[in-house]
Write a sequence for this structure.
DNA sequence: ATATTGACCAGTT
DNA sequence: TAACTGGCCAATA
């Protein structure tokens, strides 16, 4: 398992993720203050020993996809570790980000002391997440409404 | 010191 | 959420 200033910070962020929630590699990179270091985050996590000290199962890719190179068992092991904490893994080996993705609280963010330009990027992403959520809720409402119309024409 | 690798990402087609 | 490109970053398999 690599030990460096960089990897220590990665572990610190990953340990913030609550049980039953996930973050993406890009999110972790952003919270490190290095918005484009997602790949390096994945590289570091690749070396993590799956002994439960670092909940690396709670990190997935931008689509919610599980890691092919996870531990020795690959995606199967990753799936088992996620299901062990109640996270549903879909047949295509992804998790529903709208349901499980976690962002730190405002207080947590303040503690990270991120530079202004990173905070700006963070805000944009949060904004985007909110839009996606409201879009999906609107879709759901539409479905429910159509269903009701079918039942009570 | 340079080239290569990888649990990635965003944009385009 | 497909396939592909170019870019990114840390460590060197």
């Amino acid at each position: 398992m690599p030990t460096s200033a960089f990897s220590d910070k990665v572990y610190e962020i990953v340990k913030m993720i609550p049980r039953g929630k996930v973050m993406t590699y890009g999110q972790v990179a952003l919270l490190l203050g290095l918005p484009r270091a997602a790949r390096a985050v994945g590289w570091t996590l690749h070396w993590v020993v799956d002994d439960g000290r670092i909940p690396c199962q709670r990190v997935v890719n931008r689509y919610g996809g599980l890691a092919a190179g996870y531990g020795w068992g690959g995606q199967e092991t990753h799936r088992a570790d996620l299901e062990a904490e109640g996270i549903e893994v879909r047949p295509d080996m992804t998790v529903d980000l709208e349901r499980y993705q976690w962002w730190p609280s405002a207080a947590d963010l303040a503690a990270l002391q991120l530079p202004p330009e990173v905070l700006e990027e963070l805000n944009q992403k949060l904004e985007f997440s909110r839009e996606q959520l409201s879009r999906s809720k609107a879709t759901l409402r539409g479905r429910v409404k159509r269903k009701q119309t079918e039942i009570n024409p």
In short: Chain A has one domain: 5-112. The CA atoms of residues 4 and 10 of chain A lie 10 Å apart.
